[in-house]
Amino acid sequence: MINTEQILAKDNDGKPVWKFLVSELKPRGKYFTPFNIISVPIILIGLVLIVIRFIYGIGSVTNLTQEVPWGLWIGFDVVTGVAFAGGAYVITFMVYILNIKKYHSIVRVTVLNGFLAYVFYAGALLLDLGKPWNVINPIIGNNFGVSSVLFLVAWHFMLYMIAQLIEFSPAIAEWIGAKRARKILSSMTIAAVIFGITLSTLHQSGLGALYLMAKEKIHPLWYSEFIPILFFVSSIFAGLSMVIFEGSISQKVFSDQISEKNHKAHNGILHGLSKICAVTMFVYFFMQILTFIHGKRWNFIDTPMGYWYLTEMIGFVLLPMMLYYFSFRANNLFLIKLASIITMIGIIINRLNVTIIGFRWDAANPYYPSWMEIVVTLTVLFIEIWIFRWIVRRLPVLSESPSWVEEND
Amino acid sequence: MGINRLDFFKVLGLTGVSLAFGGKLNARQTKADQPELENEDQTEFVGILYDSTRCVGCQECEIVCAKTHGLPEPVDEPNPDIVRKTNETRRTVVNLYETTKDAMLVKTQCMHCNEPACASACLTQAMFKTKEGPVIWREDKCMGCRYCMVSCPYDVPKFEYHSSNPKIIKCDMCFDRVNEGSVPACVENCPAEALTFGTRRELIAEARRRINNDPDLYYDGIYGEHEAGGTGVLYISAVPFEELGLNTSLQKKSYPELTKGFLYSVPSIFILWPAVLLGMFKATKNNQNQEEND
Fold it and tell me: In which domain, by residue range, is A189 found?
């Protein structure tokens, strides 16, 4: 009982929940941080662009063409963003299914990150839809296009968001002090985890399967029938690299939230994750080599696209893989963080190669994203970080649960 | 072993859902394999045969198409230096190509595939293969995701990028007219009889007849007979089709075939994964309990 007053407020003793929620809405922390100074103007411009987009159409803001109908908002926001959100299903798998307690302290923050990523990237998807008000059609059955990969992906996005919300909901219950609700919600965790991992397996690969029908449109170095498997395997280390990267920042920025014990344990977590990354990246690299040989891709190597392919494979898969391995052996935290950054750049390059750079690489007028598309993308990203920061400062995400929560669950 | 009744029912429920869903999926896919058998009333797909040797490049098809569908009339003409493309203001265009045998004309529009990639890509069935054959677009279902455009090997669907309530624009083989027993506007108004409307079977027979009767004039082949699994619009011409800007490198299998393997694996993963995960969860949980008891 360090701070009785705070615990009483959170216990919701006689205080109406809405009053508590209103008091929580107030901003905390400094107003003029470097992040705020950069993000606020960009968000304001982005919001204006979004209004323009809805009045004058998608073409008024984007550079999309009739040949390249999916650009940055799909290729980066959705396809790349969801790969980075893969950390949530990997970490919940290790903690809840394999019962590896070591990673327990990062479950909540990872699930929160994953949840927000899905909410915002699905939100970005709405910006890209020509008729966003019809987005409910595949859900209400007008009609069920079950032969569509996108139908699967759309349903999985929605169901997975619900699963992640259930996984995260005990933290919300602890925040508003709803003891009974917390008990019920945490009993649902394991079902949500199992369901969530199944959904993730299918839609991480499904995002790759979306591009299977674009057989002649994607450069042969990136198109193969194995795109779904490659997308799935790479989502494991993409997600974990994001966990390492985000965790390293959170340890500094939110150091006041993190207990001494968890702070110390974090290095051990990074160390363990670096090994998993190294192994999964090895599997991925091996699969890429198999795909390369199977697809008889030798002819394409001595071309500009071929060099770009080699850059991706050697510089952004093989190199960070070895970096992860050596930093694991030497237990070098700096190298682990460096490897995570290189891996993340590699994932961005890979997803963009499939969805944008390699898509219609031979088009007469190739697609380049407009500055407005980039600003809107940044807007989505910054608003997400704002919400993340708001939640982390208030809910027991990085900080310990209130004392009334029983141990051992 | 700790599988209690509740968990058993959870697994059972999940399995049941996946079986039901998977079964439905499989059923649909099998039907798509055999388009001829799809309709119990044995309706055959209709199509259009375009004979490039008869086309005179008068653009009458473009003009009546624009009139019929409320689009602006064409202002440019077929020109060997420019490849004119369909876009959100025109559903069909005629192009002129310098070929090994003189300058040749070719009309482009939606190919109305037997198994259209666009329709299988559409998550709301807004893009829809009718049982009569035309592939149509239904505005009230479309969410404007443009996945049809990504999937179409012919790049047919076009999108109104500068509209707040955009439509997908593409040839629908004048489905309304066909339904009333009439023929598509372009076919009806073609003064050179370069366009023929009929069932796909009749059109292939007619195309063969023309090629056989005049083998010196025609290139021996029907574009669309096998491309992308067969299309409703068929082409015959005097020169190999790649000289007319038609894509001859497309696969002979239908495009939805490419996602079939992935979609088939979905039900099995939905059955296997939860069961495996639940098993692992129980196994590691027991382990932990033992450790604690030791």
Answer: 32-394
A319: phi then psi, degrees, rounded to nearest 5? -60, -55
**Does residue A17 lie in a domain region?**
no
**Which of B17, B113, B125 should we substitute to test contact with A (largest number of A Cβ atoms within 10 Å)?**
B125
ipTM of the complex: 0.90
Nearest-CA distance A255 → chain B (Å):
32
Q: How many domains does chain A have?
A: 1
- Is there a contact between B234 and B204 (Cβ–Cβ < 8 Å)? yes
> Is the Cβ pair A215, B255 closer than 8 Å?
yes
A209-233 pLDDT tens trace: 999 999 999 999 999 999 999 999 9
pLDDT of residue B292: 52
Farthest CA pair distance, chain A? 74
CB contact under 8 A, A138 and B123: yes
- From A185's Cα to the closest Cα of chain B, the distance in A is 17
- Does residue A23 form part of some domain? no
B 116-145 residues with CB < 8 A to A: 117, 120-126, 140-145
CATH of domain B44-253: 3.30.70.20
Cβ distance B125 to A144 less than 8 Å, yes or no, reads yes
In a domain, residue A402? The reply is no
In a domain, A7, yes or no: no
| Strand-pair partners of B46 | B199
- Report whether A302 contacts A309 (CB < 8 A): no
Task: State the pLDDT at residue A26.
Answer: 79
Q: Which of B121, B153, B155 sits opposite A67 (nearest CB)?
A: B155
The pLDDT of B208-230, averaged and rounded, is 96
From the number of C-beta atoms within 10 Å of its C-beta (0-12, 13-18, 19+), residue A387 rates as middle
Domains of chain B by residue range:
44-253
Residue B244 near residue B57 (C-beta atoms within 8 A): no
What is the per-residue pLDDT across A49-87, written as a single tens digit (0 to 9) for each? 999 999 999 999 999 999 999 999 999 999 999 999 999
What is the mean pLDDT of the segment spanning B274-282? 94
Span B11-40, average pLDDT: 50
B15: amino acid identity, one letter? T
Cα(A122)–Cα(A384) distance, integer angstroms: 12
CATH at residue A145? 1.20.1630.10
Q: Does B270 touch chain A (CB under 8 A)?
A: yes
